[in-house]
């Protein structure tokens, strides 16, 4: 694949044995650090995510089904759960909600790239959705998942996890993602899927930035100030 042709393993700069040895050593060291300096729950969840991504997704699902990125996306969406467990020692439903957002975001994010790189995936015999079901079918699924993503990103507000500042940001960002997904149904050029892909990266970063900002904006003193300003107005 042109996208990965210059990586050390693909060019032969590293052998499979060297890569495997390094990966196992790094994984073992990370588990030891998490157990010793964080907590056992974070270590266990991190290990499960590692196995899910490296073994279940990469070694099996990636070549087994065009839904590989959907099922495998669970491992990629785990970081909020890991962070929550590291700080608190347990897994809160809010952490699962953050995981759900990334999980639903993953298919439209990655399928946009897969549309652009479909010839690469075809040559490598990786059954990505554009290869097995066609580009048009994939474009519609990008739209379906984007609609679902917009709905899911409202849940932090509906569950009381965040306030209006986050909700406003999520809706604006979601409207932008929907715009790109709709235009992708009949794109102006072959490069447009990469615009969707690039926007999806900015989208996720900005969404969590709004969530973080909302947390600090929702302080009691600020709420009191805003209420005072409303009364004066």
Can you characterise this structure?
- The chain has 233 residues and is mostly helical.
- 80% of the residues lie in helices and 0% in strands.
- The protein has helices at residues 8-11, 16-37, 40-64, 68-76, 79-88, 93-116, 118-123, 129-133, 135-152, 155-158, 164-184, 192-217, 220-232.
- The chain starts with 7 loop residues before the first helix and ends with a helix.
Keywords:
single chain; 0% strand; 233 residues; mainly alpha; flat
The H-and-E topology, N to C, reads as HHHHHHHHHHHHH
> Structural class, from secondary structure content?
mainly alpha
Number of helices: 13
Strand content: under 5%
Largest beta-sheet characterization: none
The amount of helix comes to over 70%
Structural shape: flat
Please sum up the structure shown.
By secondary structure, the protein is an all-alpha fold.
Topology:
Blueprint: H1 8-11, H2 16-37, H3 40-64, H4 68-76, H5 79-88, H6 93-116, H7 118-123, H8 129-133, H9 135-152, H10 155-158, H11 164-184, H12 192-217, H13 220-232
